[in-house]
Amino acid sequence: MKILVLFIVLGFGMQASYAHNQWSGSRPDGHAPIGVMGDHLHKTGEWMFSYRYKRMQMDGMRDGTDDLTDADVLKDFPVTPTRMSMEMHMPGLMYAPTDDLTLMLMVPLIKKNMDHVTRMGARFTTRSEGLGDIKLSGLYALKRWNNQQLHLNAGVSFPTGDIDEKDVTPAGSNTLLPYPMQLGSGSWDLLPGITYLGQNNMLSWGMQAIGTIRLNDNDNDYRLGNRFELTGWGAKKFNNTLSGSLRLKGLVWGDIQGNDPKLNPNVVPTADANLQGGKRIDILAGLNFYSRSGITKGHRLAVEVGTPIYEDLDGPQMSTQWMVTVGWQYAM
């Protein structure tokens, strides 16, 4: 947090030398770190194509801020998860009908794996894979001043991800998987938010607040908990093609309301709707490359890696260990 504040203070301190210029996206730190979406607008008629690969690794169980052993969880449940990975391929498209409005479409393709162990010592892995919930958003400029800008984020998430994923488990060859292994929410979700950006000669900075508001129970008689994210970052331009970033992200998400009657919450913690909420703070570092010449002119490549520095889970629940995002962007 101290480092992020230093970035922002330095940025405002140097503002005078850059105050008469407009905020610019044509520099390596002209976009937020690749893990942030809906961070910038485009000029009238401009398109941007993007692709992101995300991976998150979870290992072990936690209740509150305390780590649990497998034996701790198996005292209360006959099965416990031990490890989970989630991969996401996300192509995206942005288009600006006006300078003040940019539309954004994100299509996630998700793959999940979760390892388990039983009280009897048997081990097994469940898998799910497919289309997630498609998101359509609008970004609307509220104010631009002294190479800073403020815009609204307003989106909707469509229930395109499956909530009936099944796999082979000790209970049967076609067993419904618990909540974290499903691919979507099953509900229509609102995605409200607000984003602030600023720049000077060598630094850029920003903050974003985004919510996910579930509007209805899904076809399996539950709705996922609402989710809120607040993130802030600072970035330094090393030269005209390369920049580095540091970001803090806070997440809060609620327990599931209702429950899927086909899941038995007494078998495994991931099937208990009351053990799904939590809070987490992540710290992430990134590198951003922007090509200014040749056949790759205008293309961006970026990577961001992070790990939690605080995690408080309504558990027993899987504990996050690390996350990484790699991405490409091209505007025309």
How would you describe what is shown here?
With 332 residues, the chain is mainly beta. It has a single domain (2-118, 128-156, 189-214, 226-255, 279-331), classed as Beta Barrel (Porin), CATH 2.40.160.40. Helix content is 5%, strand content 58%. 38% of the residues are buried. Residues 1-20 have low confidence and may be disordered.
Task: List its salient traits.
eleven-stranded antiparallel β-barrel, 2 helices, mainly beta, Porin, elongated
Layout: helices, strands, pairs:
Blueprint: H1 2-13, E1 47-64, E2 66-68, H2 70-74, E3 79-98, E4 101-106, E5 109-118, E6 123-131, E7 135-145, E8 148-157, E9 166-169, E10 172-176, E11 189-199, E12 203-214, E13 222-223, E14 227-237, E15 242-253, E16 257-258, E17 278-290, E18 299-331
Antiparallel strand pairs: 1-2, 1-3, 1-18, 3-4, 3-5, 4-7, 5-6, 7-8, 8-11, 9-10, 11-12, 12-14, 13-16, 14-15, 15-17, 17-18
Indicate the CATH architecture. Beta Barrel
Annotation field: number of helices: 2
* Multimeric status of the protein: single chain
Our measurement of the CA-to-CA distance between the termini, rounded to an integer number of angstroms, reads 36 Å
Order of strands across the main sheet: 1-3-4-7-8-11-12-14-15-17-18
Biggest sheet descriptor: 11 strands, antiparallel, barrel
CATH third-level topology: Porin
CATH C-level category: Mainly Beta
How many distinct beta strands?
A: 18
Tell me the Rg in angstroms.
Answer: 21 Å
User: SSE order, as H and E?
Assistant: HEEHEEEEEEEEEEEEEEEE
Described by the principal axes of the CA atoms, the overall outline is elongated
Structural class: mainly beta
